[in-house]
Amino acid sequence: MISKTTIDQVYETARLEEVIGDFVQLKKAGSNFKGLSPFSDERTPSFMVSPVKQIWKDFSSGKGGNVVAFLMEHEHFTYPEAIKYLAKKYNIELEETEQSDEQKEQANERESMYLVSEYAQKYFAETLWESEPGKAIGLTYFKERGFTDDTIKKFGLGYGLDQWDAFTNAALEKGYQLEFLEKTGLTIVKEQTGGESRKFDRFKARVLFPIHSMSGRVLGFGGRILTNDKKAAKYLNSPESDIYHKSKVLYGIYFAKQSIAKEDNCFLVEGYTDVIQLHQRGVENVVASSGTALTPEQIRLINRLTKNITVLFDGDAAGLRASLRGIDLILEQGMNVKVCTFPEGEDPDSFAKSNTYEDLVLYLEENAKDFIQFKTSLLAEEAANDPIKRADTVRDIVNSISKIPDQIKKEIYIQECAKIMQISEEVLYNTLAQIDKKGVADTNKKFKQEQKAFQVVKNDQVVEKVDVQFELERKIIEMLLLYGSQKQEFEDLVLKENEEGDLVLEPEIVEAKVYEKVYLDLQEDEIELTNEQFKTIYYKLIEDLNESEEFKVNTFLSNLDQETVSEVSSILMEEEKYKLDDWARKDIYPKDKGQGIAQLVGETILTLRCYLIKNRIEKLQERTEGSTDDNSEILEEIVNYLQLNKLLNAKLNRVLS
To answer: What predicted TM-score, i.e. pTM, was given to this entire model?
Structure first.
């Protein structure tokens, strides 16, 4: 268990905008930050982060919460894992008791797979540095590649012994279960006749590259064999599992994310060693697709951090055209793509190794070309004297341009392409229109096929009824969260009888804290919140505000369960969706929300009273309908409520219908 002192220190120290900034590119929006949702595929940013309140809200998915809630949602951490991650990030000493074997067994499947993977990384690294074969074979290989000790340790590189079950036996001796060794792919289990099974290490006799998630957890491994065994694959990756999905992971993203956001650009390479060599040389905003064709999920991972990608290709031209086709996916995501090729016989690894940081950066700057221009020049050169190839090239290039969602960019690229290919813009626009038309036709055809024949669709719109009491109770929680500890002058209404014998509401000015005013008014009228979640939050708020000299939302959230944290965040961030324009430049100054706190509190309580009185009147009237009994007492009660309701509505400047 993690101590309460550590948890409190984590919440006090962690800055929400810094933590989320490691995963999402945030831009200033007034007093808040805004970015693309990491939980949905959106084009317009609706993900809001409030540094003042230390909460976030994703309006596209409805999710929200504090810093721990974000890590639990985004990284699928448990609560203790999120606290540990933050403690490590902010160099906070972790006070906790050792997990018992029983607790390890109780950990859920995903957590167990993460634990096994983390142990494997440490085991392979230890084997590399401390065993004789590790030093003689694995470490020698990495040194020959030009990697320093610091780089090898930073990326957690390792070595698997040339033994059939060395790792598996070591893991089992440490108490890790064979079930999770097999599910992560670290151990291969083969059933034998007679019901027995044999266990093999997947990464036997290989140097190993751990593959990390964006938050730094070990998801899987890439292994390279160093012997000349023709029967064994040169490269071997962990198989797909519950924690490792090859198409959703980029090698090096954990080490590159901050640099990508800072440089507002991401270099994309092919191999592990390309990433490590460039990183070691000082170019840290680099990731690899791990030898797979680029996928939409991988592109969206980069898109959270930057809109700009520079793809680095080897000097070898073979297969370059095929590789270019895959980059159309990046264009579809509305991203800016550049391409940089290295001199013949060079790749990112070798070029970075043989050049200084300054020369490397200068080369990348001078040789990175816009993707469409690069593709046009490359294909035009190939098809220079062949009319058929030339026509195919034009269609290929225009097809790439059609993927771009931005219409202005499309037009600029058409003009550039026309110049390079020496063909009229009109022809290119016509080709583009045909491609776009075909795309729309295919979409419509698919849609029609999904519709049922002769289906009659009613266009009746159901208007959702507003739950007045729910909204008022929500507003009470919001007021307590934002202004609960503030002192205000309130106008209390006292029901008195005037000289004519009529009931009137006379105002009295009293000074009190907002939470005191709300609590006493609700107590006086014996009003209880009906929404169970609001009721729990309400009593917890009153308790904290009464006991704490300085109420902090972040501290309050740290003591709630994650479902309640999400609800509180939604309440606080709802108003952040809407932002007034810059009226000040037109000499129009909207009233600051903090200036009318007393009025807001008073009107909210009065409105709730009016609503409850109206409900009470309706229930009393239902009792008298069709009744032959003497209802004089009930009718007198109704008259009194009607009179009170009239007085309260007059105070609210409302006309009763």
So the answer is: 0.71
